[in-house]
Design a protein that fits this description.
single chain
């Protein structure tokens, strides 16, 4: 038993001698049993690096990269923050308007077909879980709402006709939310929101 305590004391002295007491400061780098990415292989900006042929650490964007503020391309990543005009806020002369904005550049039937196709994809990804794929308010979430509280219901989008609820109003609700529905302006680019508005009108027409 005596040797056990002597061994334990010797071990404690060795641990303190190697690692020190809590709060001690050392001039040398600490021993890292598990580095946990404390030290990473990285290159700092605007410094030299012989690994690359041009000797630069800062690399150019990958060919084909689309910047967030790009105005060209099939689906520009434009979220419209801080901008005004019908395309960005759904309003004409201070009130919600109807019709598609000229910025969508719908000139041919194929353009409209593409917009509706995009609207269907985005609707199924972002809206159908609550409102149902048919827009009738019978999505997965609405089924759970019904079990939790029969009073809570997801509205059918067929009850929002264009004459009473203009396209700009629908766009506004998609962007900023309403009631229990959250805002999607951070998830969906402006063009995608208008694509959903177009697809919603197509769903309403097919339900008649």
């Amino acid at each position: 038993m005596k040797y056990f305590f002597l061994s334990l004391i010797a071990l404690a002295v060795m641990v303190v001698g190697v690692f020190g007491f809590r709060g001690d400061k050392f001039s040398q780098a600490p021993i890292q049993v598990f580095p946990d990415m404390d030290d990473q292989d990285k290159g700092k900006a605007q410094t030299a690096n012989r690994f690359f042929a041009d000797g630069l650490n800062s690399r150019k964007p990958v060919l084909g990269t689309v910047p967030r503020n790009a105005q060209a391309g099939v689906m520009p990543l434009e979220f419209g923050a801080g901008r005004s005009g019908y395309y960005f806020d759904g309003k004409l002369d201070g009130t919600f308007g109807n019709g598609l904005p000229k910025e969508l550049e719908i000139k041919e039937e194929s353009d409209m077909t593409g917009l509706l196709g995009r609207g269907e994809d985005m609707f199924n990804v972002n809206c159908a879980i609550c409102h149902g794929k048919a827009g009738d308010g019978k999505g997965v979430v609405s089924a759970y709402f019904a079990q939790a509280d029969p009073i809570i219901a997801v509205p059918s989008l067929h009850n929002f006709p264009q004459d009473k609820f203009p396209d700009g109003y629908i766009y506004e609700v998609i962007s900023n939310g309403k009631g229990s529905m959250g805002a999607y302006k951070h998830n969906l680019p402006v063009r995608d929101r208008w694509a959903i508005v177009s697809y919603l009108r197509a769903l309403q027409a097919s339900a008649k």
